[in-house]
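From the methods appendix. Each design record in this collection lists the tokenized structure first, followed by the designed amino acid sequence. Records were kept in a plain field format so they could be parsed without special tools. The example shown here is representative of the layout used throughout.

RECORD:
FOLD TOKENS (309 positions):
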């Protein structure tokens, strides 16, 4: 299998060299253990370079190999890669990279994404994040967006040193940005099934009442984009608003990085929720979307999160 995989990597590399007209050194294979360590093997395309900064397109090569084994042709893969590179070019990522050391220019592009700390341990070595149990609240920069596809990068420690800004101030700014990039929403299952255009309920509207569920079924919390929406519960004012609507503390069940189920502590218990979470993860959550098997709790009186007992 490994020989077939390596043959595929080299074949794809040659096809991309022909399609792009790049020099040999501009497309290279990087194993996951090579420095800096990454989640998996990558095929790296160095698209362009200016002022010492390169525009990079990194492909998760094993995912492409698996799709190839399932019948996707090499020409289809190459076309998809070329389309992706065009989107990167349109997004102006290289220009954004030139501004990275200027906090004033990029502060509006900072946002937060959640990752499992242990599973992403190697890639978090040089990243900036806050710990919440086994969850890492990771600081990212949005590098551009084209055709609805966002390109981003983790903020590195050296960037923080260049900015010379207090880390807490930066995190507060990123959390606020995340709120406005993709505002929090509660999704009702019945509405999702019967209304294709349904985009969630704006429970954060303080001038209107919202009837939140306090029974054992709970509430599905995400964001308007519903991508990496599990962060919603940590965004400014969200947990406090939910607790006020429930008039109770609540449990948080992170079924994936994209959403979380919210349950009143009066309606259920952590052990039951933990069993349901495990079943949900094993049956429906793709490995790349997994966040945690832990159940979290929000204390209305203290305004703090903790692991449920």
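DESIGN:
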């Amino acid at each position: 299998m490994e020989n077939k995989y390596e043959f595929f990597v080299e074949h794809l590399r040659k096809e991309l060299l022909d399609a792009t007209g790049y020099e040999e050194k501009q497309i290279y294979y990087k194993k996951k253990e090579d420095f800096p360590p990454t989640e998996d093997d990558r095929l790296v395309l160095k698209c362009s370079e200016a002022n010492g900064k390169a525009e990079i397109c990194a492909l998760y090569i094993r995912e492409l190999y698996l799709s190839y084994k399932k019948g996707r042709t090499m020409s289809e893969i190459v076309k998809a890669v070329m389309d992706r590179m065009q989107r990167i070019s349109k997004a102006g990522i290289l220009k954004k990279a030139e501004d990275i050391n200027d906090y004033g220019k990029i502060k509006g592009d900072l946002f937060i994404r959640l990752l499992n700390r242990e599973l992403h341990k190697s890639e978090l070595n040089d990243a900036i994040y806050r710990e919440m149990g086994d969850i890492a609240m990771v600081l990212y920069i949005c590098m551009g967006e084209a055709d609805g596809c966002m390109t981003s990068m983790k903020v590195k420690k050296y960037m923080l040193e260049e900015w010379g800004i207090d880390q807490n101030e930066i995190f507060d700014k990123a959390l606020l940005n995340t709120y406005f990039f993709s505002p929090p929403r509660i999704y009702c299952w019945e509405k999702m099934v019967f209304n294709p255009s349904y985009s969630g309920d704006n429970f954060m509207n303080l001038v209107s009442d919202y009837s939140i569920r306090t029974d054992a079924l709970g509430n599905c919390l995400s964001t308007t984009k519903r991508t990496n929406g599990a962060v919603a519960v940590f965004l400014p004012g969200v947990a406090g608003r939910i607790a006020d609507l429930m008039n109770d503390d609540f449990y948080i069940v992170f079924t994936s990085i994209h959403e979380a189920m919210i349950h009143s502590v009066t309606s259920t218990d952590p052990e039951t929720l933990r069993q349901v979470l495990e079943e949900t993860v094993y049956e429906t959550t793709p490995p790349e979307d997994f966040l945690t098997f832990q159940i979290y709790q929000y204390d209305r009186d203290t305004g703090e999160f903790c692991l449920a007992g």
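APPENDIX NOTE: The first helix runs from residue 2 to 20.
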